[in-house]
Structure formats: structure tokens, C-alpha cells
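Q: I'm writing up a methods section and want to include an example of the input and output format. Could you take the sequence below and give the corresponding predicted C-alpha cells, formatted cleanly so I can copy it straight into the document?
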Amino acid sequence: MHVEMMDEGAELGALADFFRDGAQFGDAAADAPLLGRLARQQALTQALSGLFHGPAALVQLRVWVFLQLASQGDAQWPRERIDELFHALRPEALETVLKRLRDVELLAWDETQRAYALPPLAQRVAALLAPLAAEQPGDDEDGGELAALLGQVVGANQLGSLDAGQVQMLHAQLARLHGEFADAIASGSEFRLREARKRYDRAALLIDRASEAISAIIGNAQGHVLLERAARGLGQAQSRLLAMASQFNRALQQVDRQRVTLGTTGITSTDVKRWLQAAPQLHALLQGALARPTQLATIAPHELLDVAEAEFERDRPAQPQAEDLPAAQAAPTGTLAAVALPRELDDLNRLFEAWAAGPGDEARTVAQALLGPRPAATRYAQLAYKAQLMPLLGDPQAAVLPGATGQLARQPWRVQWQPEAERLDHDQVELLTLGVLMKEETNG
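A: Here is the clean output for your methods example:
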């Protein structure tokens, strides 16, 4: 089959024929730069069309021969070298493939050197088909896809040839994975959750390895509107996907809470599910488990009415009987118990009274009042409680109260605090705010 190469103007005209008119094609190419770039890639499009045209088996044969030649380290190959390289192929099959590669300009014949060589167009096509030659794990299709896209984006960024289209393809892949993982979490299925978690861990590992490169892409996109917009979307998709780890953890914890253990056997409902999924001929378990269904007997209508009426009469609740109010009763004798105040309050009152009854108007320190007559026996809790009582001295509202609290407020001592702290020789209190207790003269 011979493929004729058309000039660029003819191909553009053929592509424009699919649009309503030529003006709309020009507007679409201006609004979508991708359309314009594809329209200018005539040679590359023609080469791919010729390489992939035909039955699948023939396409696989062409791609294999082409990539095998592209992977060789030699710049040129004599025909004898090619025959030796593909000796397992029938001669007519090899000749057909080589002719197609020559027709679409993926293989060039040098008459002077009497050898084949790959033109620059073939090298571009080989770079496009590189994922086909890469070895992909059979059970990690998503991971291989994501790794290939990440490799293209990171490599293009390092070479300075990254465009918005490559970033958007990676963004779309991350969004698709996020949607699939979200569906698995919403399903509540334990087996689907665990399978999705394995895929998520592989994807998160790939993204984590490329985080620095993605950050560099976002940082280098300044000034390029399309690339900057695509880079921001890529960063948001990366954050959304990495944030799903907590959602997986909560969903799996919920599944673990719902798991039921059958008695003391140690067998859980998850084990039963796995056994049922792996059991062959599951319908055979129902043999002998279903008995003959019950058949209804024919009953006369009046018998049905009699039985229904009797059931209604039997189940009808009885009318409540009127009851008199209970007679008056004397209230039981009770006692009013007041909460006992800590004895430290009484100790503080007695200490202030003893100081007031003493000779002179000697000032006392707050430390003497808080530590009491036996400083070594005073605990930290007792000292802290007494310190909280100091503001009651001279409080007019507390002075009218009965009991020990009002008695403390009526004491003739007033506290003058100072913005300093004194060091105490005490095993539980090291520092205490410095304060002085001054005796106030009372009329009377």
C-alpha cells in the first residue's frame, strides 16, 4: 500500500472541511492552540496514520520492527544486518513492513551508503511510542500510567520544553484517580476499600517522589498564562489526592468496627465473605436448605370476619378507670446541712485576731500569715488556699456576710502587694509575691 504525502496547504484544507466554514476553523484554531499545533504537524500525523493503519496484528508487527530498529545503537544498518536482526520473520512480511516504513518516511534508504537509517521524524515518533516499549507491571496499570505521565512532565520541565497540555493531562489523571478512590470510600465495601487503598498507596508514593518537581513546575510557570493555570490546577489536584489518606483511614476504621466475630472461634464476618467469594458452585450450598413452602387453605369469608372480630376484641385496650387524688400527707422532718468551710479559714481568723490583740501596730508580712505559726508543716495546697482569701480583707460586700467569711472580711488588716517576689526557705514553695499586712485603725 502506497501512501502519498500531501502538502501542508492541502492537509489544512482537508481538516478545515470538517468545520462549518473556513472562518470558523480559523477562529477555533486561534481559541484552541492545540488545534493549530496539530494542524501544523502534518508529517508526524501522516507517519502515525501509516504506522497504525490496518489490522491490529499487522500494526503490532510494524510497531515492533520500528521500535526494535530505534533501540539499536547503530546510525545505519545494511540490509543484511536488518535481515539478521529479524531472521525469525518471513521475508515477505519483513519486506512489507519496511516498505510501509519507507512510505511514511519513518525509514530512509541511503543509496550511496547502501544502508537504512532513521530520519529525525522517526526519532520523534519513537519518543511518542516510548511507553509501549517500557515494561509495565501487570497488576499496576494505574501506577504505570501515572508514572509515565509524571516522567513526561518532569522530564519536559527539566529540559525547558514543558507546555500546558502535558500538565493538564497529568491533572486529568489525578482527578480520575481521586474520583475512583472517592467512589470506593463511599461504597463502604471492605474489599473494594482495601484494593483501592493499595492503588492509592502506589499513586501517593509516585506523587511524593515527584513533589519537588511539581513544586518547581508551579514556581517556573510565572508569566505563562496557560501553563500557570494548569500548574495551579495540578497543585490543587495533588493536594486533594494526598489528603485522601485520612478518609481511607476513617473508612477502614469504620469497617473494622462493623466486623463481627462468630462466637469464640476467631472467625470474623470478613473471613466468611472471603470464603463465599472463593467457594465454587455457591448455589450448591442451598441444596436441602429450603423446605416446601406453606400453602394457603380456602376459608369462607364469614369465618374470616369472625376470627378478625375476635382478634380485635381481644387486643382492644381497656378504658382507664377514674382514680381519686391521693390524700394529703405531712411532709417528713428534714435537716439543713451547711457545707463546712476548710479549717484554714478559721486558723487565719484566729491568727489575725491574735495579731490585732497584740501590742503596737507592727506590720506583718503576707508570708507570715500564709505560712502560719508552723511554717514547716504548711503544705502548698493550704498556702494557695489562704492566698486566695487575702482579697477578702476589707471587702465591704463580704463584710456583711455571717460566718467565718464575713469575719475574715471584718479583720482590721489590709494587704499591700508589691511587684517583687521573695524567696522562701520552704520545701514546697520557692517564691512568693512580696506583701505587707497593715493594721487599720477602727472607730469604736
